[in-house]
Amino acid sequence: MVRSNGSGSMLRAAAMVALLTLTSCALLPGERPAAEPPPLVVDTAGTWRPNLAVSVPDSLAADFTQLQPQLAGQVGMAIMPVGGGRMTIFGDWASGIAWSTIKVPLAIAALRHDRQEGILHEVEAAITWSDNAAADALWQSLGDGLEAAKAVQDVIDEAGDATTGVAGPRTTLDYTSFGGTEWTLANQARFASRLPCLPETFHVTELMTEITPEQAWGLGVLEGTAYKGGWGPDDATGVYTVRQFGLVPVRSGMIAVALAAQADSGSFDDATTILSRMARLLGRHLDEVRGGSCPPL
Q1: 142: closest CA among 184, 103, 181, 93?
Q2: Percent of the chain surpassing pLDDT 70
Q3: Which of 286, 260, 269 is nearest to 77 (CA)?
Q4: Could you give the CA distance from residue 257 to residue 262 in angstroms, rounded to a whole number?
Q5: 46 vs 66: CA distance, rounded Å
């Protein structure tokens, strides 16, 4: 079962139309390495090439480099155009437990398997206020642990995860505790970049614009964003990891964004504050960021 709950305003109809035509080695608090000034860029195939020209404005990279030492934590932010393209990664956080962000591919798998009214209700609860009991019901609806894991794994792979072996290990679903699945920042951003382009995902993406106000930190501070968050403490240290991914409208389409933070204090509240500060920084540069759209059918 998911070990912790995790995670908006409605996307305008036009924005949604554009969408469719559009292992955790967490450092302990205080042990993060010095930030590298240049962001890391990943190409479509997933090859890590630090010296490629960035696909985001230099001003965003410069501002993030200035902000990171003030964040008092280990952080990561990955940005990629919807529909494919280069990914830009900032920060020193690279991978960790998915927590409740895994509920997005889980909800998609469940809806594809069964769209009866009860499943629709559970999907809404699992996405909008990250209800764990609802997510567990969705998991159970997919069969036994192995069958459920395969169904959710298929959704993740469909979004391109199965081709990312060069960049890092493929995301392999933990069938005994789906919320405990390891999901890298890069793979999560790549998943988000394909999310609106996959079949039968519109309902889940729409629900991601209706997140409860109590979870409207991070990407939730940006108007028109569809997002889902997740969080939980490390079993050994109690340090909270808070992460989030979503779809942000820009003038040229949409961008996929994945965020993660571990505050030096170890607290949940401090980590969500860090995510909000990163999101606000991104928000100041949205007019400069190149987005994308799904390829024509």
Answers
A1: 103
A2: 76
A3: 260
A4: 17
A5: 27
Cα separation of 196 and 86, whole Å?
17
Beta bridge partners of 74: 262
Q: What is the pLDDT of residue 244?
A: 98
| Tokens matching residue 77 | 């932010």
- DSSP element (H, E) containing 283: helix 268-283
DSSP result, 192-243: HHHGGGSTT-HHHHHHTTS--GGG--GGGGSTT-EEEEEEEE-TTT-PEEEE
Nearest of 218, 157, 189, 226 to residue 85 by alpha carbon: 189
Amino acid at 153: Q
Q: By C-alpha distance, which of 108, 82, 92 is closest to 21?
A: 82
Number of other CB atoms surrounding residue 1 within 10 Å:
12
Q: What is the pTM of this model?
A: 0.81
CB atoms within 10 A of CB 17: 11
Residue 259 has pLDDT above 70, yes or no: yes
Closest CA to 196 of 27, 19, 74: 19
Render pLDDT for 83-132 as a digit per residue (tens, 0 to 9): 988 899 999 999 999 999 999 999 999 999 988 888 999 999 999 999 99
Which two three-digit tokens encode residue 292? 């994308």
| Pairing of the two strands 182-184 and 87-91 | unpaired
